[in-house]
Amino acid sequence: MFDLERVREDTPGCRETVFLDSAGSSLPPQVVVETMVDHLRRETQIGGYRAGSERLEDLAEVKRSIATLLNAAEPATSIALSDSASRSWTDFFYAVPLHAGDRVLISEVEYASNAIAVLQRARATGAIVDVIPSDSTGQIDLTALESLLDDRVRLVSLVHAPTNGGLVNPVAEVVELAHRVGALVLLDACQSVGQLPVDVAALGVDALSATGRKWLRAPRGTGFLYVRAELAAALQPATLDLGSAAWTAADEYTVAAGAARFEFWEHDVAARLGFGAALRYLLDLGPDTVYAQVAERADYLRTSLAELPNVTPLDLGNHRSGIVSFTVAGVEPENVRDRLAADNMIVTVSHRSSTLLDMTARGISALVRASPHYFVSHDDLDSFVAAVACL
């Protein structure tokens, strides 16, 4: 059974606000804060090096928890911890060899950070960037993708759930098509891990990037990269240090095995321990329970907002995530956000520059994004809808 009162007690901030920005940076459970503060206090007593050495097993457990959540084999060699989803995504992307004439496919809902990296490397290497069209529902057009694929495609960049709406793209189908021509699939799961089922074994993705601060309710400055263990061994990261490699002779070095080659030695130990606490909290609640609670709240909010005459829902796709996007007639999205914030209701605005191709094609310059997590009550959602109606 899902105990709403318990999770609200564990999340003091949700009693002070109607918090609908877990797609941005969610409210961590109290145990996350306590874990981080306890470690920082320990650092003041014995210094960061010794304090970190005391927690090596707990840091290893962070990877095991991620592997459990994703159904990933060999966590020690398939999971690399990082400071963000963008860091993880770019670390993998820049390790994939690209030459003149090679092709990279992106989707219409590609996130700006990913697109910028792709365009930069294309300019540097002579690689070609092609966009996979969306179908009538807004998701990846699988027929169009199949027609674009050939043996020059090195990588398909796939956004699982975009930042600007409730669309969920079909992953396993994209992977199956891409692998036919030997292309790798890099899954941007920044907005899906923690709110949607993500099983890397079933999906077959070659790599996956995600953040801690959103649906996993972990601190900012945390993230991870999943790489198929056998693939990681074949990749050379663009940057290395003494954590990702060993200096073995005056002119020699050895790269770390597996995904560890994507990790730098220096990191925020307190944040990673907090990340581990957030993961344990999720696993103890039961991921399937969490996914169901998020989906139910998003559906409830989406349906309620659609009944308002001045609101235009903007979510695409046959399958929907916990992100609810909309506009209010006659009120700029930034004004909607600010007027709601004055009533302690927290949403954010997604601008065209974040998902340029999709929002340009739809003629949208900005939209309001609400993302209710499982700690949001239905009374909160009703109050929010009433406040939007007043706008």
Summarize the model shown.
The protein has 391 residues and is an alpha/beta fold. The protein is built from 16 helices and 15 strands.
Specify the overall morphology.
globular
What is the count of DSSP helices, taking H or I runs of 4+ residues?
Answer: 16
Radius of gyration, Cα only, in angstroms?
21 Å
Strand content: 15-25%
Q: What is the helical fraction, as a range of percent?
A: 40-55%
Keywords: Aminotransferase, Lyase, Pyridoxal phosphate, Transferase
Function: Probably catalyzes the conversion of hercynylcysteine sulfoxide to ergothioneine.
Enzyme class: lyase
Organism: Antrihabitans spumae
Give your account of this protein's structure:
It is a single chain. With 391 residues, the protein is α/β, with parallel strands linked by helices. Helices cover 41% and strands 17% of the residues. The protein contains 16 helices and 15 strands. The strands form four sheets. The protein has a seven-stranded mixed sheet, with helices on both faces. The chain has a four-stranded antiparallel sheet with strand order 11-12-15-14. This is Probable hercynylcysteine sulfoxide lyase. Belongs to the class-V pyridoxal-phosphate-dependent aminotransferase family. EgtE subfamily. It catalyses: S-(hercyn-2-yl)-L-cysteine S-oxide + AH2 + H(+) = ergothioneine + pyruvate + A + NH4(+).
